[in-house]
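Posting for a labmate who doesn't have an account.
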Amino acid sequence: MTTTIWIIGVALAVLLLALSLKVVKQYEQGVLFRLGRVIGVKKAGLTAIIPIVDVLHRVSLRIITMPIQSQGIITRDNVSVDVSAVAYYRVTDAVKSVVAIENVEAAINQIAQTTLRKVVGQHTLDETLSETDRINLNIREILDVATEEWGVAVTLVELKDIQLPESMKRAMARQAEAEREKRAKIIAAEGEALAADALGTAADIMMAHPLALQLRNLQSLVELGVDKNSTVVFPAPLMSTIGELGSFLARENAAAAATPSSVTALPAPDQPRPAQPTPNGKAQLADATP
């Protein structure tokens, strides 16, 4: 009987010792309640409490990732979008996170959803798509103010996904296509303007140096001959130049043929002299006798 009592006593002592020793991990803090009142915060390590009298609540100090489920939001320009986000927060005051609010995670999740709808609803669709950094900052600032009294700090809020209606997607696709066509036409027009300017400058240079045009024509013929084409195209200026060159050579040959010889031939003795005009206008044959 005595042995049984001794064994029971040892078992109760071991049980009380197990109930009185608590381990707080490195990333946690323990909020110690004694008879319902907070008496302190326990750091990481082994902590002894009074069983039944003391209650230790462990609070994680690590950054917690909390997804914000998709919210149906109407933007300022009356476009319906579905926006989801993600928030990162951590507990900065373990006592406040336990005493000031019942469930800090559920509270932050609910206020994050309402804040997301409120902030996004104040912006147009274009601003929502292009100014996400400013929207994220506004949401984080609002959450920080609301969660400060809960001992929680929101470190980051990011918009994760923005879903648009199919009709709006098609309209935006048409708008983007029209914008690209406009840019292409503007670039092509600028290229034509630069090309016309360059051609005008080249024309001025060729007018000052006519031989440059002929050299350019010959270069064009060389470029055409590279492809071994069966058809050869002669530029019109080159053909006129060839014609002018032929006319010049013909004039030179005619002038050379019309030049008189250096020796003058005398008429033969037996040939009559040409008729000499008389004062009355009648021709008189000259005497053939010398």
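Reply:
Got it, the structure tokens are right above this. Residues 43 and 133 are 37 Å apart (CA to CA).
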